[in-house]
Design goal:
- There is one protein chain.
- The chain has about 375 residues and is of the alpha/beta class.
- It folds into 2 domains: about 1-215, Spore Coat Polysaccharide Biosynthesis Protein SpsA, Chain A, CATH 3.90.550; about 230-375, no CATH class.
- The chain has 11 helices and 7 strands.
- It has a 7-stranded mixed sheet.
- Strand 2 (about 30-40), helix 2 (about 45-55) and strand 3 (about 60-65) form a beta-alpha-beta unit.
- Helix 9 runs antiparallel to helix 10 (about 330-350).
- The longest helix has about 40 residues, at about 215-255.
- It is elongated and about 85 Å long.
- Residues about 375-380 have low confidence and may be disordered.
């Protein structure tokens, strides 16, 4: 089994020798090479050359004077230069333990997957190496948002944000990738349907140096995510925006006939809830309906959630109007902006989530039977 380990680096000089030593020890049972794709401004290239001279396995250096595509671009460049089709990507700070490489290769050898993902969120995996509680929360929130954006492609992938994975490069379109940042696995999984398996790993503390995580990287991630999933979310936003305009117009019309603004808000909400559901079915989530539950099940989930959200949102409007004396229409608009993001997450993760494999519950059987009867041809 030939394996290329690709390590994108940026100012990781203190970690290089230990990383090479541990990869060498972990991969003695199969032929391995290491490719460092380096964008550093410190002594990391010298450290890599020194480690290559001392190592028992081939170690290559690609130093990029003009980096393109960030960490993702470095990974793609490493894959293009690899001697093996089997490429394993890991960070250079030893938070991805080299000792887990054999288990990833072993899982790939089953022959039924294209990608093996090392996950912090399955089995005995752990994210303890994250610097503090805030980073853990950011990581969890980013993962949830990502899975909401790609519920079909990321079905069964608990950790699409990991930088520790093994892939057969023949299964992906390297030339078609457009890496924009540091979440290259997300780019790979979002571009093409692949067979994925996960193995647990414990995210370790850095061996040396400081974390590269920053607010700027967070912005890069959001840009990358928006670019990959712009189509679906933009359609959801357009329909939600049109629904919001209709909601405000209906509310405006009723309040100007003398109706109480809260009653007008309830009527406007119910009309737009129904209209939005059918528009989303037709234009936004049409590609996900085949793997999701039946129409009635989707409708009931959507209808119940949106009404629950309205129960919360309408008192919020009253609070804004009565406490801060904001115009009722402006207050409604403010709450609708917040509601948009909550609705998108719920519909992607729950309403149109792929149905579970296995014996359905009694409630599910009942809803599915109603759905079957509702769409069956009949006579007037």
């Amino acid at each position: 089994m030939q394996l290329t380990v690709i390590v994108p680096t940026f100012n990781e000089a203190p970690n290089v020798a230990e990383l090479v030593r541990r990869i060498d020890e972990a991969t003695v049972s199969f032929e391995t090479e290491i490719i460092f794709v380096d964008d550093s401004t410190d002594a990391t290239p010298d450290a890599i050359r020194a480690a290559a001279e001392a190592a028992d396995l081939p170690v290559r250096l690609i130093h990029r004077d003009k980096p393109a595509g960030g960490l993702g671009g470095a990974v793609v460049e490493g894959m293009l230069a690899a001697a093996s089709d089997l490429c394993l990507v890991m960070d250079g700070d030893l938070q991805h333990p080299p000792e887990d490489i054999p288990s990833m290769v072993h899982r790939f050898r089953h022959g039924d997957v294209d990608v093996v993902v090392a996950s912090r969120y399955v089995g005995d995996g752990d994210s303890g190496g994250l610097a503090d509680r805030s980073r853990v929360l950011v990581s969890r929130a980013s993962t949830a948002l990502t899975k909401a954006m790609f519920p079909v492609r990321l079905k069964g992938v608990s950790d699409p944000m990991t930088g520790f994975f093994l892939v057969d490069r023949r299964a992906i379109d390297l030339e078609g990738l457009k890496p924009r940042g540091f979440k290259i696995l997300l780019e790979i999984l979002a571009r093409r349907s692949l067979r994925v398996a996960e193995v647990p790993f414990r995210f370790a503390e850095r061996f040396a140096g400081e974390s590269k995580a920053s607010f700027r990287q967070g912005l890069h991630f959001l840009t990358q995510l928006t670019g990959l999933r712009f189509g679906k979310m933009s359609l959801f936003a357009i329909i939600g925006g049109l629904g919001a305009i209709a909601n405000l117009a209906i509310m405006y019309g009723f309040t100007h006939t003398g109706m109480n603004y809260l009653v007008a808000a309830v009527i406007a909400a119910e009309i737009t809830i129904l209209a939005n559901f059918f528009a989303q079915e037709r234009f936004v989530f049409h590609d996900m309906k085949g793997e999701a539950n039946g129409t009635w099940s989707r409708f009931l989930k959507s209808f119940a959630f949106n009404n629950a959200e309205a129960v919360i949102r309408i008192p919020a409007i009253a609070l804004l109007v009565n406490t801060w004396h904001i115009s009722s229409v402006i207050a409604a608009g403010m709450t609708l902006v917040v509601a948009f993001f909550v609705r998108f997450l719920f519909h992607s993760l729950v309403v149109y989530a792929p149905r579970r494999v296995g014996e359905p519950s009694r409630a599910q059987k009942f809803v599915d039977e109603l759905d079957t009867q509702a769409v069956r041809p009949g006579e007037l």
